[in-house]
Amino acid sequence: MKIKLLSRLLLLTSLALCSCKKQVKSNNETASAKSKTKQPNIVYILTDQWRGSALGYAGNPDVKTPNLDAFAKESVNFTNAVSVTPVCTPHRAALFTGRFPTTTGMFLNDLYFPAEELTMAEIFKEAGYNTAYWGKWHLDGHGRSTYIPKERRQGFDFWKALECSHNYTKMPYYDNDNQDMKIWGEYSPFAISKDANNYLTKHANDQKPFLAVISIATPHYPHHSAPKKFKDMYPPETLTLNPNVTKAQEARSRKELQGYYAHATATDQAIGLVFNKIKELGLDKNTIIVFSADHGEMMGAHGVKAFTKQLAWDESIRVPFLISYPSIGNHKGSTVNAPITTPDILPSLLSLSQINIPKTIEGEDLSHLIKNPDPNVDRAALVMNVAPFGANYNDAPYRAIRTKQYTYAITPDGPSMFYDNIKDPFQQDNLLGKQELASIQQDLDTKLHTELKKINDQIRPRDYYLKKWNYKLSMDRKAIDWWSFDKGEGQVQSPKPVIN
Q1: Catalytic residue among 18, 20, 138, 164
Q2: What's the pTM?
Q3: Is position 220 annotated as part of the catalytic site?
Q4: What is the mean pLDDT of each run of 10 residues along the chain (500 residues)?
Q5: Of 284, 270, 277, residue with least CA distance to 332
Q6: Which residue in the list 88, 91, 220, 263 is annotated as catalytic?
Q7: Is-catalytic flag, 138?
C-alpha cells in the first residue's frame, strides 16, 4: 500500500515538474519572441523645401494637409525644429551622420558624401536592420543623373533613387542594380509612396526590422508642375501673405504659393497612403514614424524672392518634425518647443531603437524629450551657413542658435540677428543693441559660442572653408559644377581637409 502511494506521489511530482518545465520553456519562448520584436521599424519621410509653417496643424489658414494634421494628433510635434544648414546636401549629410557640416565638410550642394563617414543606414544595418531608400538622394556628387552603384549608397540595400531631379511628372530613378534609368509612371510623390507600400507589405512580417527612408522632392519648385486639381484649390488672389512679405514680392509670392500649396496638399495625400498602409499591416504597433523636411524657403519674406533658402530667418531654417513611436501612449498630440537641429535626429532614433550611439556622433540624444515631451523645456539648437553659394553667394556666412523664444546669429563682422520669436513671430524687429535687452543678447552670444566650442568651430569667411576643404566653385553659377557631368567633363569634389 505504501509502495503504491509512494509511486503515485512520484508520478504526480514528475508530472508537476514536467508541467513547470513546459511553463518555463513557454515563458522563455515568449520572452524570446518579445526580444525579437523589441527593436522598432523606422519609416522616415523626408520632404524637400517644406516650411514648418506651411501645414494645417501648424496654424496655416490656407494650406490643406489633412493626413499630416491627423498624424500630428498621434505624434510628438517639435514646433521649433530647424535645419542645421538650410539647403539640400548639407542637411542630408548631417541627418545621416549626426555630425555638423563644419566637421564633415558637407556644407555645399552636390558634394560627394565620403565613404569613410559612418552613416545611419550602416549603423542600423549592423544592428540587424534591412535598409531601403526611395527618391532624391543628393549626396553622390557625380552629377545629378548618374547611376549610383551600391558601394556609394551609404548602407542602403534596397534602392529606387536618383541623385537629384525635380521633374515631378516624369521623375527618373534607378531600380537597385539596374543601370538603365527608369521613369516613375505618375506624379512622383504618389509613385514613390505606392512603391514604398509594396516594400512595407513584403517586409511586414520579417523577423528583421527595417529602416525605410522615403525621400519625396516636393513641395520644392518648380511649382507650376503641381497637379491641376490641387492648384485649382488655391486661387492666388485668395491666399494669405505673411506681414513680412514685402510689397515688391507680393504678386510673385501669390503665384508661387498656389503651386507650393498644391504640391503640399498632393504630397500630404501621397504620405497618407503610407500612413494607411502602416496601419493596415499593423506596423504602427512597432514602428517609429518621422515626417520632416530638409529646409524651408523664403517665399518673399523680408524681400527675399521665392525659392531662396540658406538664410537664418525662420522661413528658411524652420522645418516640420513629427515623430510617433510604439509606446507613445498618452503623449500623442504633445508638443516640444525646445528646438531640435539636424544632427540631433540620428542619435535620438538610435536611442529609441536601443542601439548604442557611436562616439563620432555630435548631435544630442533627445529621446528623453520624445518619450517625455515637455513644452517648457528649452535648449539652444545650432544652425549655420559656412559658405553661401548659388543665389546666396553674396550673403554673409553665419552661425546662429534657435531657442524656443529667440533667434540669435553672428557673421564674421559680428552679431547680425536677434529676434524674440514669441513676441515677433515674423521676425520684423531686430533687437540687436537694445540696451534693455543687453543681458539677454549677451546670454545668447555665450550660448552660441558654447555650442561652437563643442564642435571645435568658429565663424570665419567663406574662402577659409573653401580652401580648407579644397573646393572650387564654378563662378558661372557660383556653385559646385554638377552640370558638366552630363557632358562627361565633371569633377567629383569630396571633403578633403588640407589646412588646420
Answers
A1: 138
A2: 0.92
A3: no
A4: 40 42 36 56 98 98 98 98 98 98 98 95 98 98 97 97 98 98 98 98 96 98 97 98 98 98 98 98 97 98 97 98 96 98 98 97 98 97 98 98 98 98 98 97 98 97 96 96 94 80
A5: 284
A6: 88
A7: yes
